[in-house]
Write a structure and sequence with these properties.
The protein has 514 residues and is of the alpha/beta class. Helix content is 38%, strand content 21%. A six-stranded mixed beta sheet has the order 5-6-7-3-8-9, sandwiched between helices.
Length: 514
């Protein structure tokens, strides 16, 4: 067992005013299954890159181990190669028998190694990369968001696989995945870093109690400060009133009145008490300063659903969808004879394996809605059979699972979508995007921050139906909780593709299996 020791680590990107890490120190063991948790933009992926030596930094990182990173960066031409060829490029000393052994544990046929990578599903690609990653035996593995775009069955397989391994850092916002396979957490708080034994749920419960205690202590502290300020104000008023009695004093007319020297001495004592109280107030504030800086407060979001005249907004009856022309379509349908309706107030989750046609169905629905409820509207390269109907005049707010199209400034994004920029930025702040980000090009944002751009745009758009395609990829846990709360409070009509099992359990009113 070895240790990774981080001492006085300080790092910020060149040209940026933000310091991501400021004199950070901690240690972790290389046989831990370590979960790395933190808000979007707090530096999780940056920290992994620092371990890999990709950036210059101040301080030191000492480790008697070799680091390997998931996922590997693949070029467009790499997808034409088979997995076996890519495995040798990914890992110089890769032994194929070891990769096949790991694939068996991941429930993948070894035949997948000898097919072009582009023909593999997202789940198969992830599993092949994980098999290559764990085919060695002497590295400490850095696993960054392995569950994104994976269906529920694949997530379960990956979770069970990782639970039997040791010696890795896992970055993920999937609470079920973290609970199932980690034994320690490394948490990037707002102003500190902590290492704790346990899984996500144990850390979350400890944090909830710690935050509640901090809130209670802060409330008590505020009351103490208020009492001290009141006492200081009263003493100051007494001193001023006492000092004023010296004005117009006549020793002949008022022989029993205290002399000026006595009055001045009393005033001086009162003024001294005032200064002592003010000093105590400053000491109290200094002692408690920063008490709530690490407390994560989840701001209540808002949503503006519209009410449609019809109760049923969408209906599919014996609906089939596939690729190619009808003449070529023998056996190539993604799904057949689908039946379901979407009524106002329902939150329907589309469930199924990767590649079963969930995103294709969403594109078909958007296409029919743009044709104002028309049936049988043709889509390029797609074949439809059966009935897919949308209510006339249906307004849809859509989130695409892809963020690659985002470019330019926040202002230009708002202008393109007809959004009020000040409201949009206020909502981004509620989703914990720093103000400094607003001046940067959107393409420089982290994947989680880009996703928040799309979420904020959808939340600000009044609509009859909200269609979200994998909206939570890369989104941090705290923002997921915010989104869960606003949906349950505002009760919008929704059609969602999302593989976060806890999110679905809390939000779904109905699940449609493809």
């Amino acid at each position: 067992m070895a240790q990774i020791d981080v001492n006085e680590l300080t790092f910020g990107y060149e040209g940026s005013f933000d310091t991501i890490f400021e004199q950070v120190s901690f240690s972790v063991d290389t046989d831990w299954r370590l979960g790395l948790i933190g808000r979007n933009g707090k530096g999780k992926t940056t920290f992994l890159n620092l371990l890999l030596g990709m950036y210059e930094y101040q301080g030191s990182i000492q480790a008697d181990t070799v680091f390997e990173y998931f996922p590997w960066k693949l070029l467009p031409e790499d997808f034409e190669e088979c997995g076996a060829v890519l495995a040798e490029r990914m890992k110089a000393d890769c032994e194929m028998w070891r990769v096949i052994r790991e694939l068996d544990k991941l429930q993948v046929d070894p035949e997948a190694l000898y097919r072009p990578f582009e023909t593999l599903s997202q789940g198969e690609r992830t599993k092949v990369m994980l098999a290559v990653l764990f085919s060695g035996g002497h590295e400490f593995l850095l696993i960054d968001e392995p569950a994104n775009h994976l269906d529920q069955a694949c997530r379960e397989t990956v979770k069970n696989y990782l639970a039997r391994k040791r010696g890795f850092i896992l970055v993920s916002h999937d609470r079920a995945l973290l609970d199932g396979c980690i034994d320690h957490v490394l948490v990037l708080n707002r102003c500190s870093i902590e290492v704790q034994k346990g899984n996500f749920s144990s850390w979350w419960e400890n944090k909830r109690r710690k935050d509640a205690f901090s809130q209670m202590e802060n409330e008590k502290h505020r009351k103490e400060i208020h009492k001290l300020r009141q006492a200081s104000r009263r003493a100051g008023q007494w001193a001023e009133r006492n000092e004023s009695t010296k004005i117009g004093y006549d020793p002949v007319a008022e022989p029993d009145h205290a002399n000026r020297a006595f009055i001045g001495m009393k005033t001086k004592k009162m003024q001294s008490r005032v200064k002592q109280m003010e000093s105590r107030i400053e000491q109290e504030i200094a002692a408690k300063e920063g008490l709530l800086q690490d407390v994560e407060t989840v701001t209540q979001l808002k949503l503006f659903p519209l009410r449609h005249a019809k109760q049923v907004l969408l209906r599919a009856h014996d609906y089939s969808l596939g690729y190619g022309s009808r003449e070529e379509e023998n056996g190539k349908f993604l799904f057949r004879d689908l039946r379901f309706t979407v009524e106002q107030g329902e939150r329907i989750f589309l469930n199924g394996k990767n590649g079963c046609g969930k995103s294709s169905l969403i594109r078909a629905i958007l296409n029919h809605a743009s044709a104002d409820g028309g049936s049988g509207a043709a889509m390029d390269g797609m074949t439809e059979q059966g009935t897919l109907e949308t209510a006339s005049g249906l307004v849809i707010s859509y989130i695409n699972q892809d963020t690659g199209f985002l470019r330019g400034s926040i202002r230009s994004f708002c202008e393109e979508r007809g959004l009020e920029e000040s409201l949009f930025c206020a909502l981004l702040r509620q989703l914990d995007l720093e103000r400094a980000q607003f001046a940067k090009p959107v393409e420089t944002f982290s994947e989680g921050q880009k996703k928040k751009i799309l979420l904020a745009a959808s939340l600000l758009t009044p609509a009859h139906l909200y269609i979200w395609d994998e909206p939570l990829n890369y989104i941090d846990v705290f923002s997921r909780i915010q989104i869960e709360e606003v949906i349950t409070m505002c009760n919008p009509t929704m059609l969602i593709v999302e593989h976060d099992s806890q999110f679905r359990e809390k939000i779904a009113t109905k699940v449609v299996d493809l």
